[in-house]
């Protein structure tokens, strides 16, 4: 097959907030930048972010970045790297201002400044009263940000490859990344992008679970590409279940609903969060609230005929607040849950939402792996940013409003660092044709015909296994069984055959490639979870109920080679301030 | 008793020389809370593996799943089958390039429109990252936000007779964007600038006022008012009155 080859200074895979903010820096610096996305950029999952982006602007209540940093470290259950967290919380402020200048229509206060709402895990004065740190454009903040970034990229003439699917990274024998093999979805035509630097910004992998708030497209493509290129995945055991997904459906009801005064009740009408988190109540950290809901349901206090969910009450806020501050939520509840939240409570249950782990990077977005000289050597020519990356700023649990922040700050930081990198590395390295052939062979595998298992069959089974064996509560036995099942499913991939053999616009082939990615990532989650014998943040083990700072202040690293897990220490030293030592985490 | 639903779905893959435009019929049992997203996936999984259609967020926010549902443009992911009769006809959105079956290239159209109408905030100078936000009245911010809610799904274009006749017509989505930036104090452009972009038949004066866009916008954007205001503004600008 003939192979089209294109050359760019920088290749960015993924067109969500991280990819577009990085691309904007590069295009503004007049570099040749290609953005590859499997969907039209404004369909990327950033569009679905509802609540907002955290920055200590102090527009509503007193605030500063140091308090934001404390909350983020505490929220991470002390597993976040404090240098990266300090960097993010400081950068948050100019990042939001820059977005505002570029046209994001933030909601405003009476004094004309950006509206900020309260979100879970936010405090003043290092654990004091509730803070209001989340800058919001009503309840469609991600939509507003993504569209603005895309508009600015059109102005800056970024080159887009829309509806192209990335197959594999291409590396050379020294481990440097030289670009990627991609495929045009409509025609099935492969294209080799040769780039001096490649940024993975492919977002999350919520589709590994059966019930998820994530879009159809969040299949962990970039993470799996990294794994296949020999890069480990870090902290994959930490998967956030958002407390309030629409019960049975998984669509998200933003934490902003509770920030605006909504609260959860069980079948007795009890406001049960008062028992689990006496101070923060419904605005405790997400892992805490998700566990509380699952516990209520398990202990027989769930609502509905099956007793399988709890209720989120909003009706007491009145129609005006709901319509003005939460219009999208009202719409989603009416369509997907069949209730008008102005009149009745919304049935909710935790839904797989966000992966804290990902491709290990430093705070400049450069991918770092243990090679010979310590645990954090950079991979030449490879960057990652956004949900697919793990800096790590979220540690064991991410705070609401910190994910839009993460993608924007580190997308920007990666873009800025790439500009410097390209000054020092102005030339393409020679292409590694053997690696190109390997990637082409992986793609060609899906042309085999004959009888076999369908993609759907395997995918449904896999997502059920992940939900049953890597959910909110995990024990040794359940997880060990899960690992074996996922490994068996990985073997079964060989027997999968496509029923649609057309070369052009073959969505079945894309789904098969996505399934391969999902299983690679799913195994990383299952093995990392089995490895960590403590409870920390989102990783909750009834058989090891305590956090163990003596043995487990470490990041896990999953390597596909030998399916092994290694560990590296948490970076507890911030850039300029005192370290926050681990303390018991109560809300 | 659940209903047995019949789906008549347009099939055609222009990239495949053997493919011919046709309608194929599928049936399935309706389940509780079934959306067209769920139904179409079930049909593809069980009956028609090559069936092409677009979905991303499945929650009505990304704008990728517009299609003709019993003749009316709408978002498939937030259309409940319960709201439809026993027989459901699905066709791709007209006015856009067909990719295959129900999948059309709205992205390409939107990109072209964005480039022609320069749909971004035009600043006096590159933003200063450390400068505070521009103070804005809450009502003004809300007015901008209200228009910024557009998800570029393309339903208004498919519902527009002018857009069907004139491929370069800005359409409600484009005119709404101009209205959005016109309302934004950060954008330095004034009406004479906007007149250059939409002051002709491809712009606001091409609108015949049929308002299918307004009736069918899944986000219920105030398109009728916005087009009227914009037309008045552009007319004043053309006559040299501001």
TrEMBL record, chain A:
- Cofactor field: FAD
Keywords from UniProt, A to Z, are: Cell inner membrane, Cell membrane, Electron transport, FAD, Flavoprotein, Membrane, Oxidoreductase, Transport, Tricarboxylic acid cycle
Q: Give all Tele-8alpha-FAD histidine modified positions.
A: 45
Q: Which GO terms describe its molecular function?
A: electron transfer activity; flavin adenine dinucleotide binding; succinate dehydrogenase (quinone) activity
**Residue span(s) of domain Fumarate reductase/succinate dehydrogenase flavoprotein-like C-terminal:** 459-587
Pathway recorded for this protein: Carbohydrate metabolism; tricarboxylic acid cycle; fumarate from succinate (bacterial route): step 1/1
Q: What is an example of a Pfam family matching this protein?
A: FAD_binding_2
Q: What is this protein called?
A: Succinate dehydrogenase flavoprotein subunit
Automatic annotation (TrEMBL), chain B:
Top-level lineage group = Bacteria
Q: Which residues form the 4Fe-4S ferredoxin-type domain?
A: 141-170
Q: What is its EC number?
A: 1.3.5.1
Q: Which InterPro entries match?
A: 2Fe-2S_ferredoxin-like_sf (IPR036010), 2Fe-2S_ferredoxin-type (IPR001041), 2Fe2S_fd_BS (IPR006058), 4Fe4S_Fe-S-bd (IPR017896), Beta-grasp_dom_sf (IPR012675), Helical_ferredxn (IPR009051), SDH/FRD_Iron-Sulfur (IPR050573), Succ_DH/fum_Rdtase_Fe-S (IPR004489)
Write down how the cofactor binds this protein: Binds 1 [4Fe-4S] cluster.
Question: What top-tier enzyme class does this entry carry?
Answer: oxidoreductase
Q: Which gene encodes it?
A: frdB
Q: Where is the 2Fe-2S ferredoxin-type domain?
A: 8-94
**Name of the protein in question:** Fumarate reductase iron-sulfur subunit
